[in-house]
Amino acid sequence: MKNFYKVGLMLTVSALLAGCGNLTNSSLSSHSNGTKTSKVTTTGTSKSGQYSTLLQGGEYHTSAITGLNSESDSDNASNPKSFEAGLLEISKKEFSPDKYFFQEGKMISASQAQKWLGRKSKNNPEGLNPEDNGSTDADKRNPIYLQQLLEQDFYTQNDKNYDLSGMTIGLSMNDVDYYTKEKYGAKFETKISDEQRLSEGREMANEIVNRLRRRSNLKNITITVGLYKQNVNDSLVGGTFFNYGVSSPGQKKVTNWKNISQQNQVLPVVNDEKPINSNDSEDFSNFKNHIQSYFSNLSGVTAQTHYQDGKLKGMAINITTQFYGVAQIDSFTQFVQDAAGKYLPQQPTIEIKIQTVQDPEAILVKDYNTKQYSSHVFASY
Amino acid sequence: MKNFYKVGLMLTVSALLAGCGNLTNSSLSSHSNGTKTSKVTTTGTSKSGQYSTLLQGGEYHTSAITGLNSESDSDNASNPKSFEAGLLEISKKEFSPDKYFFQEGKMISASQAQKWLGRKSKNNPEGLNPEDNGSTDADKRNPIYLQQLLEQDFYTQNDKNYDLSGMTIGLSMNDVDYYTKEKYGAKFETKISDEQRLSEGREMANEIVNRLRRRSNLKNITITVGLYKQNVNDSLVGGTFFNYGVSSPGQKKVTNWKNISQQNQVLPVVNDEKPINSNDSEDFSNFKNHIQSYFSNLSGVTAQTHYQDGKLKGMAINITTQFYGVAQIDSFTQFVQDAAGKYLPQQPTIEIKIQTVQDPEAILVKDYNTKQYSSHVFASY
């Protein structure tokens, strides 16, 4: 494992830009550490602000630790995506896509991550979650704080090689630890406070950085750590990051901790939930009412909203229809576009997906801080 | 029913253009035929070349005859969409979207269409399909030629009213008539030749026009008729139009019949099927092989292709993945965009849908005769 930080040998750097269409294939020798390494290629970027990805041996590398969980019974389907997407955003703050190439983490192995996600015990001295104190009382037991780990690696190009120069570690921390008192028994909950989550998260981050620094290839790279708060199981939206810090090359702990203010919410709000921003919530209600009064057979109109520093940054709207006539979908898409321009807030990134239970039928998108939507109705021949 | 051709009374003409965002609500009186009519609004168009739709009483009107079938046991899921979409294209040749407003047909009632789709018999003198001659032999029986009907209505704006000024009728004709010899029995097939389909289709079209002209409100409008050949049940692509004609105002039959040359095909071709165009087929294979060699876990890469006059006009590509990590989908989308620019033909409209079994993950599209793809990766918060 320890020579993976320097990949090279038989490089194929592919400047694959759409429309440009020329693929250069150059076979080059390299100066890696005497190990057999495989052909490295990169994907081009389709948008500025996105990473080029390193492909190894021609294939996309997936991290072995993605999806590993602690013993806590978390099952919110939105958490994994928002955890990964949010961590990429944090990475971009430290590792500019203009300079760094991305690859999913390969330094932390699955067996290692599994130990770290476990409780500390005689058999598992590396466990980052606290020892089992024997109690099954929600308020007296030691909860599982750390639920998932994620690693993202960042490489810089050095002549014919790509060198590992940065790493981002994500710690997904529980808001609620779901546990059972006996196997297959009823589910109980230990609520974790924001203060506990922050202090436990920072402590674990330091311990992880400290462990990683023991490896010679990780001593002198920048390691960024993001702390993520998982959303509870019954939410239809994922969690958010609340803190991140940086450990500069050589440092054995994380310094420069910074707060991140993010919130997610599903609209329309249900029960007695308070909207994060009542204007946004009303805008969405007006949009929803408008299209529902003109087109019957809409089974659902909901939005996931994403706030940063109190500002609405993104909306992902889902419209489920029970019709799929071509002319009707065309007409409905136009109508939705008109309604979106009229009722929805202008600043955030907005994505509107129109779908039947079987298939997506149409999509409308607009970028952050622009007004103009582009739409596409899916073809079928 | 007979006053439906003139709609008006309490008009709300809404110039709903995205970004423009002003909705004018004007209540106007009207000079309709003394009947109570409901408020008419229109949707704006999001693209040039698309119809504005008339909404009635605020709602989109769906035709009552859409989806009605003859007794033949046709079940290709792609036929209905390609039938409707193709008929809209024919309509655009006669009724320019710049001048005409679209509404799904409301002149032919469901009970009427059901009679027309039936076999001619003592109880059903209006049946357009031939009498049952008693034979169950595939070559001796009279097959069901006409499978479905579709009506599209076109209105022009006349001061404060919208007048019905054009109509397009689609006749979906069988390629194969699927029948059983006894209820719930085995399925047998009568193959219908191109010549039979053409002559039967034209004759039925004349009969339909003749019947419609008996109504005072349909005497003096242009009626266009399109003849569609249904695709067989085991195809993964819909059928195509092969003929269309026009009946000018007052004419009791269709004249000016014109051939339409269209073909659909799924790529990669299977078994011993011959590709419509071997260059296109090879281009697609190269694209498919390229992305499959770089990304494992792709369960399927297929394309629906649509040809007009021997030229590839459109491709709808479907890529099914087994992964849904955010970074991986991002990276894959970039990679697909590069590969599409490099391997796929440049002229046709191309749509590439990347999805897991649960959800669409990303979409790439380019217009006809352009090179540049635009892509969108679906968000999740």
Automatic annotation (TrEMBL), chains A, B:
KW Signal (keyword) present: yes
Segments of this protein annotated with the region Disordered: 27-52, 119-140
Signal peptide: 1-18
Low complexity composition bias: residue spans: 27-49
Domain of life the protein comes from: Bacteria
Swiss-Prot/TrEMBL keywords: Signal
The protein, known as: CamS family sex pheromone protein
Organism annotation: Bombilactobacillus thymidiniphilus
